[in-house]
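Session log. Operator J.P. requested a structure for one protein chain; no other inputs attached. Running the standard single-chain path with token output.
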Amino acid sequence: MLTAGMAGAFSQTDMADYKAADTKDALVELKTTMGDVVVELYNDTPLHRDNFLKLVGEGFYDGVLFHRVIDGFMVQTGDPNSRNASPGAQLGEGDPGYTVEAEIKYPRHFHKYGALAAARTGDAYNPERRSSGSQFYIVTGREVSERQLENVDMKRRNEQMQNYFQKLAMEHRDSIQAMQRAGDHEGLEALRQKLIEETEAKVIPEVMSPEMKAEYVAKGGTPHLDGQYTVFGEVVKGMDVVEKIQKAETDSSDRPKEDIRIISASVLKPHE
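Structure written below.
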């Protein structure tokens, strides 16, 4: 639902392309060299919302490039080192000097078409899955079939079971090592079966709802990223611009050969 003041900022053509956002969520406009994009920032990811609004207010995003673009996947920006980068320079390491605590709200927020999410370093260096202080991406993704979604659910369930089993095994490490030293194979197998039973009893798999599956099948996305990155908003206007950005010709590092830049970012509506 748009307020009267917000509606005045858009033409009738814009209004037709505008997805009604939660009236309590913030709206930010990104003016790019390919066109304008409006994103909604979710109130239930307040650390990311407030950080994003702070950076926008400081002009942090003004002039930065979309430095990583993959057709059928996503477009990424927010590296301050990209602002004056020379052609062919390797980008993607820049940030404001801090990270943001993860606010992964899966399955409430997922990697649907148009999702706004925070980039981060990998689990090996970042087991807490903290987000980059500034880099973010917008999901374009690909068409997804019911079978593919079933496979994603199965993989996620297996990972959850494995992680929980390993946690239990660590808790019984001393007993396991003692039985291994004693050559007690029967004891080890009995404990293994006990831990498997406890894992199966305790782990409640996170599976997609019918509504999520319908969204993925209808519009696409990147479901394999769900539960691993913080999704903190979505595009409510300008996905046609995002589509144009993802089609840009890129080099071997996925950087567009012709610079695509955020000219300016501004808050259209603060959160309530």
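Operator note: The two ends are 14 Å apart (CA to CA).
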